[in-house]
Write a structure and sequence with these properties.
Helix content: 25-40%
Number of domains: 2
Shape: elongated
CATH architecture of the largest domain: 3-Layer(aba) Sandwich
Radius of gyration: 23 Å
CATH superfamily of the largest domain: Zn peptidases
Strand order of the largest sheet: 12-13-11-10-16-17-9-18
Strand content: 25-35%
CATH class of the largest domain: Alpha Beta
């Protein structure tokens, strides 16, 4: 095992990973059908992975065209390695084609390179190495691939309803060393009838991403206060006349909604400008509620020592057919309920209807769990550093599996680019993650 050159092995198979990244596997509502439950592109990525598994000699099982699985070994205990192949949407300000899979000799570029097609492919390669070695397996190791993690996780909920729970699972969907718990995650939908001077409104493209672009078309003359606010707050904005109206485009910095400090919301900046419109109190209401990404404006800030701060992100805001609609992402620590938070948000937005279609409570696994310590030992062996467990604000398939942790692929000293513009991953780092996954699976077999 120690003689394996993981980087060379990965480079030799890189074209397969690039093909996977080239599939724009974003949820596509227009093509949703019984055979494509999350749209044709998510299904295309799933079938691509199915083809790779079959080519390597695995017997593949399908679950309603939303999940595929393949196993090696057998035994009373089963370890599931759970990955998703869907990705979040992209904005139009990428420097590179987000679905090119371009490799420049150091970085692999594209949506999903970090979150999480690369690691989904790495665990497949790690299992291939184990199959090729011919070592006896005392447990069943099952690769599981889903296609709607970024929205509802209905794919994996369906899978979980049809199989017995595994003895343990991990998902390579986050950061190293090892994430033993996650904050609660919920999504609110906001709606309000509106008849005012805003003619068009398009802000953000994904509930769980900090918006990097927000745009409004306004039937109004330019306010002098806008220039002052733009200058004082260093807002990146363009204001142009268009057929007697004003089009305001504001730019921010995208980031994962659970880490708002790494981004900057273009929507909040736009709301600050719109709040200056006379007799348009709705924009003041929204700006006050979401001006702070930790819930201060909505009087719902909450923090615990173990899980950190609550985060709040107005990921999508639109105006269509006489209705303002918004999607809000919130990550909350254990110790407060989603019902209480919903009550607080409704009080902060009295003119809106607030509904809660999605809510997953916080999760936690013991750092002393023998499966968790097996993963930690693999990390420490490869990296020569202590694998200190942590709690994340992210949401992974751990929410569905329970006895499941998030494990890599991004290292503590690397730039986190989940859901960000120009997402990329270092192939040298990916090769080290590949080595960790290979050794981790072998150690899980010994538990």
């Amino acid at each position: 095992m120690d003689s394996i050159n993981y980087y060379d092995y990965l480079i030799a198979h890189l074209s397969e990973l690039q093909e996977l990244i080239r599939i724009p596997s974003v949820y596509h509502a227009e093509s949703v059908s019984q055979t494509a439950p999350f749209g044709i592109f998510s299904l295309q990525a799933l079938m691509h992975m199915k083809s790779l598994l079959e080519k390597s000699g695995y017997e593949v099982k399908e679950y309603d065209n939303s999940v595929v699985s393949a196993s090696l070994g057998s035994g009373e205990k089963r370890i599931d390695i759970v990955s998703h192949l869907d990705v979040v949407n992209v904005s139009d300000n990428w420097a590179k084609d987000p679905f090119s899979g371009e490799f420049d000799g150091e970085y692999l570029y594209g949506r999903g390179s970090q979150d999480m097609k690369t690691s989904a492919y790495l665990v497949y390669l790690a299992c291939n190495l184990i199959r090729e070695s011919g070592i006896p397996l005392t447990k069943e190791i099952r690769l599981v691939y889903g296609s709607d993690e970024e929205r509802t996780m209905d794919d994996m909920k369906n899978y979980f309803s049809k199989v017995t729970p595994p003895s343990f699972a991990f998902t390579p969907d986050g950061e190293f060393p090892i994430c033993i718990g996650e904050k609660g995650a919920l999504m609110w939908v906001l709606k309000k009838p509106y008849h005012g001077c805003i003619k068009e409104l398009r802000c953000g493209n994904q509930c769980n991403s900090v918006p990097d672009k927000a745009e409004a078309l306004i039937a109004h003359s330019r306010l002098s206060e806008w220039d002052d606010v733009i200058e004082e707050n260093h807002i990146s904005a363009e204001i142009k006349e268009e057929d007697g109206n004003l089009r305001i485009t504001v730019y921010g910095k995208s980031a994962h909604a659970s880490r708002p400090e790494e981004g900057h919301s273009a929507t909040v900046d736009l709301l600050q400008l719109l709040s200056l419109l006379p007799e348009e109190d709705v924009w003041k209401e929204l700006y006050e509620a979401f001006r702070n990404p930790y819930g201060t404006g909505a009087k719902m800030s909450f923090e615990t020592e173990e899980m950190g701060k609550l985060t709040l992100n107005l990921g999508v805001l639109t105006f269509t057919d006489g209705t303002i609609a918004g999607n809000v992402d919130c990550r909350y620590p254990a110790g407060i309920t989603s019902a209480k938070l919903t009550e607080q948000l409704q009080q902060a937005l009295p003119s809106f209807t607030v509904s809660l279609p999605y809510d997953d409570p916080p999760t936690w696994n013991s750092p002393e769990d023998p499966y968790v310590t097996a993963l930690a030992k693999a990390y420490e062996e490869v990296r020569s550093e202590i694998a200190t467990p942590f709690i994340s604000g992210g949401v992974s398939y751990s929410k569905v599996f329970g006895h499941c942790v998030s494990f890599g692929p991004i290292f503590p000293d690397e730039e986190k680019m989940f859901h960000e513009t120009d997402e990329k991953i270092s192939l040298k780092s990916a090769a080290q993650a590949f080595e960790i996954y290979h050794k981790a699976i072998l150690k899980l077999l010994e538990v």
